[in-house]
Amino acid sequence: MSVARFWRKIPQRYNLIGTKCETCGRHFFPPRTFCPDCRRNGKIVDHKFAGKGTVVTYTIIHAANEQFEALTPYVLAIIQLDEGPRMTTQIVCRPDEVKIGMRVKSVFRRIATDGESGIIHYGTKFMPVE
Amino acid sequence: MRDVAVIGVGCTTFGEKWESSFRDLFVEAGAIALEDAQLSGEKIDAMYVGNMSAGRFIDQEHIGALIADYAGMATRHIPSTRVEAACASGGLAFRQAVIAVASGMEDIVVAAGVEKMTDVEPGASTDTLTGAADREWEGFVGATFPGLYAMIATDYMHRYPLTREQLAQVAVKNHYNGARNPIAQYQQEITLDTVLRSTMVAEPLRLFDCSPITDGAAAVIVAPLDRAREFTDTPIKVLASAQASDTIALHDRRDISTLDATVAAGKRAFKIARLSHKDIDMVEVHDCFTIAEICAIEDLGFCRKGEAGKFTADGETALGGKIPVNTSGGLKACGHPVGATGIKQVCEIVQQLRNDAGKRQIDGAKIGMTHNVGGTGATVAVHILGRV
Ligand SMILES: [Zn+2]
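Structure tokens for the assembled complex are given below, as produced in the milestone run.
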């Protein structure tokens, strides 16, 4: 990933800043700049998500893409944020800990190291709520 | 709109073809298809080529022109267009060719698909395939393509009665069929044990739940139905062509275990053809992973949601079953050169309908269906073909 491509999404990746449609109240994370329900009548504003959610489904990745090889095996999940939208994320826990319906909260973590440029990408992961 | 027929088909063998280049592959498939239609190249009016990622696999773009050139068409200046929709590129190329003929714009059109995947390291090909999903919000957080389908499997197995053995049976059945298909990448049958003891890739999916990395090309020739008998005694009519899209990311879907784009494209195709699932004699579905075949046969209506595991274990999708699925061996055993797969599915159904499918022939086959998926279900193409 190029530096610009990563830098552009820093607020979203670091701080879970998504968007919200003020017309219908629907929240978007990953952020959208166009509401599929209200279309041209939608009014999109930034929204900071609380960072709490529930595991919808998951897998344990054993064969990873290159930048993630050092992390294997790791837990990848789709979670539903309490505000409504779903997102794909890593869960910081042991592979045998993850369960459907498990409550999770956001944490700031290193996501990957880019082999070529050596740039370390940080971002949001989730961990079990005690 | 005019009726459209397939008048010729051709496939290379699928596999790790280190001796063949990208150009060699599509020239070979095209030559077989032309020979099959007893057609000379001067009759061709246009070409559509399905290709996912020559840019990353062989550092080559501008595939439409390249293919027309090496197929010997450069001096005739025919229109040649690349079509890209990840693993559904071939299905969409076929649909574009059908639309061109149906509209009356063109008469004799080639729809081809090609992918040369093994010139890069396996890690690089895996990463390239991740581009079929949402790079920004799936790939960048550590999702792999098998990982996304594994999350479909986890969701499915949590909600419906599907055992690990039933899931493995999909691969066993497809290898059985592949062993009866001369072009298939894998020519050997496997057992449940082969699947259940293979390397873990993304839980619960193991290596033998996954389609392989493959080189290969396929081509079909379409023409107006009323001209088809100039070229062949066994034209195969295109009864329906349908396409649908959905969210690029799996996490944004209405239901993780249902591919709504498959449901939509399937319904549209049946409506256009005025047929139901009961009329289909065999279907080629997009089994990039075993769980994908389970979802596909339900989403197309061949069995109810949650019942595909038992349906498969009972042999209903095998060669002698109620609805034979993936007689070619599917993506799993025949191989999955991503841009070529959708065209290869059409080739298989055409061979079945012409009674040319050898040891995997379905007796009395009259109507067949193809189902080609891009990504985790963001694009789906469904076609219904029939004897005339
Ligand atoms: Zn709205």
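The domain at 51-130 of chain A is CATH 2.40.50.840 (OB fold (Dihydrolipoamide Acetyltransferase, E2P)). The pocket of zinc ion is lined by residues A 21, 23-24, 26, 35, 37-38, 42 (CB under 6 Å). Further analysis is deferred to the final report.
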